[in-house]
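From the methods appendix. Each design record in this collection lists the tokenized structure first, followed by the designed amino acid sequence. Records were kept in a plain field format so they could be parsed without special tools. The example shown here is representative of the layout used throughout.

RECORD:
FOLD TOKENS (114 positions):
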């Protein structure tokens, strides 16, 4: 099987992933990743994000995800809706933490005053 390495000049989004059945899987992120051409059974349980969020094309955001066992790698695209939801969850968590800290401060002041 011939290895493939996409570049933007071929009409595809540029990628650092090279899919090859002949080469051994290798993680040289952020320069290059050599991946088997298809996933294995282990991929469903062992895919981990590597590196930072990437932005290409018309603002398309993605992460590289790589199986820690076999090395199969894909790009996981992140929709803007997911980013907005993440920001909302983070804000909600921050608000809960801030409320809890304020409560502790008030209780501490009450104890000191007594």
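DESIGN:
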């Amino acid at each position: 099987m011939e290895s493939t390495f996409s570049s933007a000049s071929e009409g595809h989004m540029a990628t650092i992933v090279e899919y090859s059945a002949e080469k051994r899987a290798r993680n040289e992120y952020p320069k290059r990743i050599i991946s088997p051409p298809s996933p294995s059974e282990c991929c469903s349980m062992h895919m981990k994000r590597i590196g930072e969020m990437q932005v290409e094309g018309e603002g398309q955001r993605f992460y590289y995800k790589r199986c820690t066992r076999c090395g199969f790698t894909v790009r996981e695209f992140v929709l803007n809706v997911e980013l907005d939801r993440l920001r909302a969850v983070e804000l909600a968590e921050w608000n809960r933490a801030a409320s809890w800290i304020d409560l502790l401060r008030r209780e501490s002041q009450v104890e000191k005053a007594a």
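APPENDIX NOTE: Residues 80-113 form the longest helix (34 residues).
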